[in-house]
């Protein structure tokens, strides 16, 4: 059974365009996401799924430079992009990651994958009921479930965000949520705004430029330097998905 992490990446972010190639500790932000994912022991392959737009030529070229496999597909229909990428990389199990999470912890990825493999699940994540910091999200699902979603999902939010068709339907799919011992869901470690980029730059400035630190080290730093956490407070979690759901309303009636 081949387990492939597919990192969702594009340059045309609405709130912070070009963020995935922004400098972070002397390297593009995307480098850190890929390097961290590659440290996960449960993955057979780490790949990038970017778009076929000219704006993402830079992403494809950088993946080529890093020797990271990549797929280029539709910008807006991310579900189709993921499905086609999963086919190209011959994935039996897909791990969905996003390129705006440079504090990704490979041990968290491994924990979610291990739970997925412990039983006959279709989808396992740490996001159905979030208890990890925003930015440590990992979703694991069967390619068969992804294919069913690809065939049957029609709402905007279900095409733009890949997995809602699956996790919204426990009657069709066997689901499991992985929870942290302590609820840390109020912590924001993703990069969607300029303040988020400043936050992760400060973390890296203290903890080092290579993916040798994880969630526990970041938590310890924030306990010692609580002013760092104040850099990017006040933003809503999963704002992009909520916007898509709002736009679903006319379609769903």
Order of neighbouring strands in the sheet with most strands: 5-4-1-6-8-7-9
Order of helices and strands: EEEHEHEHEHEEHHHEHHH
Structural class, by secondary structure, is alpha/beta
Strands, count? 9
By CATH reckoning, the class would read Alpha Beta
The helix tally amounts to 10
* Average pLDDT metric: 94
Overall morphology: globular
Radius of gyration of CA atoms, rounded to a whole number: 17 Å
CATH superfamily: Spore Coat Polysaccharide Biosynthesis Protein SpsA, Chain A
Distance from first to last alpha carbon: 40 Å
Strand-residue proportion: 5-15%
CATH architecture tag: Alpha-Beta Complex
- Count the domains: 1
State the helicity in percent bands.
Answer: 25-40%
Low-confidence regions: 249-253
What does this 3D model show about the protein?
With 253 residues, the protein is an alpha/beta fold. It has one domain (3-252): Spore Coat Polysaccharide Biosynthesis Protein SpsA, Chain A. It has helices spanning 29-38, 57-66, 78-88, 106-117, 143-152, 156-160, 164-167, 194-207, 215-224, 239-252, and strands at residues 3-8, 23-24, 27-28, 45-51, 70-73, 93-98, 123-125, 139-142, 175-177. The strands form 2 sheets. It has a 7-stranded mixed sheet, with helices on both faces. Strands 2-3 form a two-stranded antiparallel sheet. The longest helix has 14 residues, at 194-207.
Present the secondary structure layout.
Elements lengths: L2 E6 L14 E2 L2 E2 H10 L6 E7 L5 H10 L3 E4 L4 H11 L4 E6 L7 H12 L5 E3 L13 E4 H10 L3 H5 L3 H4 L7 E3 L16 H14 L7 H10 L14 H14 L1
Parallel strand pairs: 1-4, 1-6, 4-5, 7-9
Antiparallel strand pairs: 2-3, 6-8, 7-8
């Amino acid at each position: 059974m081949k387990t492939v992490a597919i990192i969702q990446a594009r340059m045309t972010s609405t709130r912070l365009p070009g963020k995935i190639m922004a400098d972070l500790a002397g390297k593009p932000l995307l480098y850190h996401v890929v390097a961290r994912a590659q440290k996960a022991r449960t993955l057979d392959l780490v790949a990038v799924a970017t778009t076929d737009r000219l704006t993402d030529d830079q992403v494809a070229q950088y993946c080529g430079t890093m020797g990271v496999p990549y797929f280029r597909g539709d910008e807006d229909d991310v579900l189709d992009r993921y499905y086609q990428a999963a086919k190209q990389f011959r994935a039996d199990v897909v791990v969905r990651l996003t390129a705006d999470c440079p504090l990704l912890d490979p041990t968290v990825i491994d924990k979610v994958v291990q739970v997925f493999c412990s039983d006959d699940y279709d989808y396992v994540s740490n996001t159905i009921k979030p208890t990890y910091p925003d930015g440590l999200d990992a979703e694991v699902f069967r390619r068969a479930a992804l294919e069913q979603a690809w065939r049957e999902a029609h709402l905007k939010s279900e095409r733009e965000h890949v997995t809602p068709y699956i996790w919204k339907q426990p009657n069709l799919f066997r689901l499991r949520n992985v929870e942290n011992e302590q609820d840390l869901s109020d912590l924001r470690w993703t990069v969607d705004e300029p303040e988020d980029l400043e936050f992760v730059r400060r973390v890296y400035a203290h903890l080092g430029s290579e993916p040798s630190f994880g969630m526990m080290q970041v938590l310890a730093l924030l306990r010692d330097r609580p002013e760092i956490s104040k850099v990017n407070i006040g933003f809503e979690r999963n704002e992009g998905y909520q916007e898509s759901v709002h736009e679903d309303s006319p379609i769903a009636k």
